[in-house]
Automatic annotation (TrEMBL):
<feature type="transmembrane region" description="Helical">
    <location>
        <begin position="151"/>
        <end position="171"/>
    </location>
</feature>
<dbReference type="InterPro" id="IPR050366">
    <property type="entry name" value="BP-dependent_transpt_permease"/>
</dbReference>
<dbReference type="InterPro" id="IPR025966">
    <property type="entry name" value="OppC_N"/>
</dbReference>
<dbReference type="Pfam" id="PF12911">
    <property type="entry name" value="OppC_N"/>
</dbReference>
<feature type="transmembrane region" description="Helical">
    <location>
        <begin position="125"/>
        <end position="145"/>
    </location>
</feature>
<dbReference type="InterPro" id="IPR000515">
    <property type="entry name" value="MetI-like"/>
</dbReference>
<dbReference type="GO" id="GO:0005886">
    <property type="term" value="C:plasma membrane"/>
</dbReference>
<keyword id="KW-0472">Membrane</keyword>
<dbReference type="Pfam" id="PF00528">
    <property type="entry name" value="BPD_transp_1"/>
</dbReference>
<feature type="transmembrane region" description="Helical">
    <location>
        <begin position="12"/>
        <end position="38"/>
    </location>
</feature>
<keyword id="KW-0813">Transport</keyword>
<dbReference type="InterPro" id="IPR035906">
    <property type="entry name" value="MetI-like_sf"/>
</dbReference>
<feature type="domain" description="ABC transmembrane type-1">
    <location>
        <begin position="86"/>
        <end position="286"/>
    </location>
</feature>
<keyword id="KW-1133">Transmembrane helix</keyword>
<feature type="transmembrane region" description="Helical">
    <location>
        <begin position="88"/>
        <end position="113"/>
    </location>
</feature>
<keyword id="KW-0812">Transmembrane</keyword>
<dbReference type="GO" id="GO:0055085">
    <property type="term" value="P:transmembrane transport"/>
</dbReference>
Amino acid sequence: MITWQGFLKRFFGDPVAIGAGIVLLVLVLMAVLAPLIAPQNPYDLLQLDIMDSEMPPSWKPGGDERFLLGTDAQGRGVLSTIMYGTGISLIIGIGAVVVQAVLGITLGLIAGYKGGWIDSFLMRLADIQMSLSTLMIAIIVLALFQAAFDANIYADYAIFMLIIIIGVAEWPKFARTVRSSVLGEKNKEYVDAARVIGLPARKVMWGHILPNTLTPVLVISTIQVAEAIMTEAALSFLGLGMPVDRPSLGSLIRSGFEFVFSGQYWITFYPALVLIALVLALNLLGDWLRDVLNPKLRRGED
């Protein structure tokens, strides 16, 4: 098993991992510190002025030094909305992966350890779930939710709904990963010893087998955060994600898309750039973690 010293040595020896880590750290800090460092609070109507709408970036003719990246149609500074929107996208991405992990790890442990008809039933359920598009499921559920409730109620529960829908739709990836790890662990000597001393199945699964299956879970979690963020962005672009007055990166891209061909490219371009950077950094780190934590790949390098 790789040590922390070896892990850090490999990280600082890989320029791609360092670059992706720096980008991710900057974006996370920007999102966390948004209430303190953002030039404007895009949620505070008292700070908005419609006369400031559609201003270009500050270095262009007609720009204002108060708005470094320009403003949108509501007079909100694009830089400020990006800071707050990145935070919402990260909350949805991380929250959805937590839901995926809780469901997937639990069902994967049970399927792999119990075997038999329980394993067959859960894996067929996973097959059915994976045959359905996450985006299709989310579109149907969110469209029904929007039709059933008014805009204010939808705005209040949009984050929660997106986390639950994306999380529930993607649990099979965690379940299959954990199940395959459990099948390789459950017949080892330390598991037999735990059974011999009379530990119940619950303690054997959660206390002994699970800690030895967390390496692939860590890798898939990083990649799934990026996928959840992209799914949320797609839903918001379609008008089924976050409302315009509580922007995520996806809803920011959508709100400015209609202005692209009229010359106000900055309303969509800069949020899209940040979204690409965020997803790319997460995917690169996920790929790097997979390579580092895979024993077969490490043996191949030795």
